[in-house]
Amino acid sequence: MVCDFKDYYGTEVSYRRAWMGVEKARGLVFGDYSSSFDDLRWYVDAANDCNPYCRPVLMLDGTFLKGRHKGCLLAAMAKDGNQGLYPLCFAIVDSESYDSWHWFLSKLFVILTPGRDIAFVTDRHGGLLKALAEVFPFSSHSFCLMHLKANLNTYLSMTSRESKEYLLTLFSRCAYAPTIELFNELFEEFKGRCGRSVEKFLEDLPNECWCNAHFQGKRYGEMCTNVAESFNSWIRDERHLFSTSLVDAIWVKLMEQFSRRREVGNKWNRIVCPFAEKKLEEAFNDTKAWIVKKCSNDIYEIQLDHSVMVDIGKRSCSCRLWEIDYFPYKHGFCAIKRSVKDLNSFLDDYYCVSSYCDSYSHSIYPVPSMWKPNVVVNDDIVLPLLCKRLTGRPRTERIPSKGEIKRIRYSRSGKMGIHNQKTCKEALL
Question: For the chain, which residues score pLDDT lower than 50?
Fold first, then answer.
């Protein structure tokens, strides 16, 4: 590009300006940056054009880099209509801090579709909590249930293993409780069994940020940041590369993923995605023997061991599962089937094959890199990240969360566990 501008227009173009043009051409866009590599972010241009077709739930997470220049990679992930990982934006920063998250979220705010009600799921990082409240003050914020359970595990260190497992299970039941009445009942039992050791943990945990009964936004049943964790695992090998090579490697993987899913989606001769079809099929098999009574054109009663009222007009159910997951599941499915109405019309557009195909309709284009011009001394040069070198040997393995237990497979028994080989009581294979 530098040579072409000089030959055709007689104009000198800096290497920086030419490189920015190449990045825009291939679907990755630079942000504002200074003389260092601190202020650099990319968003997938194809994903930016198609983000209205994904569910309005974003999982945010950061992972450390293992290359020579270190740093941290922040990412915002969504899910497509078939539960597939859908990267929307990522950035390379010096560390996972308030300043980095605030800058990242401010750039993310620009590329999101205006007016959409976005729900966020995070790991409750201190800097992220503050930055998210400032950049997205009106968005719902949910804490990852897996991280909460790992944190809770540290407050239960004095209890027995059986009691600890029961309390963690009871905490999950509180989080998934659909109604306030059921939540209050389970939560009182949980607090009564935990005692004072967990009071500090619960004081810093607003109910509207972790349990279904009090959550005000739409998170479509997403309780954890598994998608963001999957993205970190997906690029595990690439995290050893230099920053530019890392971005190129991620770009190539996304380019192939978009192309592959576009081809798969175009072959589907159905209305809704396989994920939704499977859920509806499960509901059909489980509700064959249920008794349904009609009250009006929209209101039905499902008679089980208890009675449930479903209003298909308002897309609501007395069990509140329809309002929480925004999917009709068993009660809603049974009432819709009794009404002889089109079931697909009660599903959100995000689950339709047409939305799935639209979300991958834009391509991430490749750009050949057979040569690049020499860097002029007076030209703007982007320097590596300004990261502090930590004491000790550099880490290459993932840093486990507080209270996390690593399970391994033993060659002696072939089973998963947390004990060592010396204390293994299984018979030799």
Answer: 23-39
